[in-house]
Design a protein that fits this description.
Elements (H helix, E strand, L loop, with lengths): L26 H25 L7 H13 L7 H13 L7 H29 L3 E2 L2 E2 L11 H19 L2 H31 L7 H28 L4 H27 L12 H4 L4 H9 L2 H10 L5 H13 L2 H21 L9 H11 L8
Antiparallel strand pairs: 1-2
Length: 375
Amino acid sequence: MILSRWFVRGFRSSAIWRNPTQQTQSPKADWLNRTQRFNNTVQDIVANVMANGEVAKTPSLAKRLVKLMEYDTLLRVPLQGHMTMMAYEVLENPINLTEQNLYKAQVVACAMELAQSYFLIMDDFEDQSKTRHGQPCWHLLPEVNNLILNDACMFRSLVNDILKEHLDGSVYTKMIDIFNEMYLFVAIGQYLDNTIPKAKDISLYTHDNYSKIVRYKCTYYCLEIPIMLALILCEKDNEPTFQRIRDIVRDVGFLYQMMNDYTDLSNEESKSGKTGSDIQEGKCTFYAVKTLERATPEQKEIFKSSYGSWDPEHVKRIRNLYKELDLISLYKDQHNFKYNQFLKNINDLPSDDILTPELFVKMMEASNLNNWEIY
């Protein structure tokens, strides 16, 4: 289910990434324009930070990091960055939306996108993926090879340097804490995502483990983090507000991951540019979990003997099993349930809450960029 376009108003026109002379653009054209402006900002920020840091002492390394940024960061819609800026513009008092404050928000948004690149290249390496953004994954390039881990570490350090260069005081300290927690959470999710298939134990394909993967790999850094960072920038952050964010986006996180599982199941290259292979890799997906919840003993045996295999016949058996159990219909029902629960949660927010329905609806709308096929 896609949120109605009329339900979402445009962002405030104060952001530098928005072109005030093109207010009549289509939503797709507007986002493409924002993306280009965002990419220009990222390149400027990265160039300035590297020029003043240790990396500048090793020109070949600086050139390599720029190439990595161009190879990944600049080839996709910077969704996390856009959502961070969006959250800041909605949550900040209009009088404080100065050029200086907006630039700080842009810096944080850029840091989010660079962190996203760090996660993606590590994820591709650990999954041994072949393509991303319609081209070979970074770790498959001849000049990368065994330097992939060092490249990832350097990119993560670049994120920290950017935050240190532009932020100070408690805002900087809180930002570093959030980013460090993000690295930890995603690593936990990555651990579960990779060890469950390797265990070859179907008892691990449970709703509890799937929920953990959703929480650590998706909900936290895709949804919670942009709002939390914006609140810190606005100096309106506190633990009760963070908890309300968690409660609201929990269902959205499931929506995202279930949609990702559905896209992978289509057996085509997803709009994120990554080829789908969840069945072959034995991933703990919505479909795997629901299969074992619904399957007969005989069907469980088919799943056990065929799931996690690259044999085309085994993959076909699993796909047929999904059809027999009518899991696509179940997916659609669960999708609608989670969506409606999300709407209920935001509509139940107190009228004086700093968190507004507008904020969450805009973030949901932003996530529908993949329906425009511009990743």
